Amino acid sequence: MSDHEYDVLDELYFLISFDELKNSVGMEDDEIRPVLDKLHKKGWLKCFEEPDVEIDPKNVDLEINYHKYHYLATKAGLKAHTST
To answer: What top-level branch of life does the organism fall under (predicted)?
Structure first.
């Protein structure tokens, strides 16, 4: 797990908007988008359109809509985060 992946997962214990996440980790869009993509492909994060509307993982579009989503770590993501 990269340092950036660790830092992002550290913020995903609770549901967080993209803007809040970006500000918390101090990364720019072009830095954080690939990290979110990697975490999603590993099954370590969930994406939400709204705080109570989870997006089916196969319908997540992190190329275009990453800045519109809210994020939350999955159980596997939390386990990976705490085991490093």
So the answer is: Bacteria
How much helix, strand and coil, in percent to the nearest 5, is found in the chain?
A: 50, 15, 30
Q: Tell me the CATH number at 22.
A: 1.10.10.10
Residue 23 Cα distances to 15, 18, 66, angstroms: 14, 9, 15
List the one residue out of 41, 35, 43 whose CA is nearest residue 11: 35
Q: How many whole angstroms from its chain centre is CA 73?
A: 7
Domain membership of residue 59 as a residue range: 3-82
pLDDT higher than threshold 90 for residue 84 = no
Average pLDDT over residues 56-61: 93
Domain count, the chain: 1
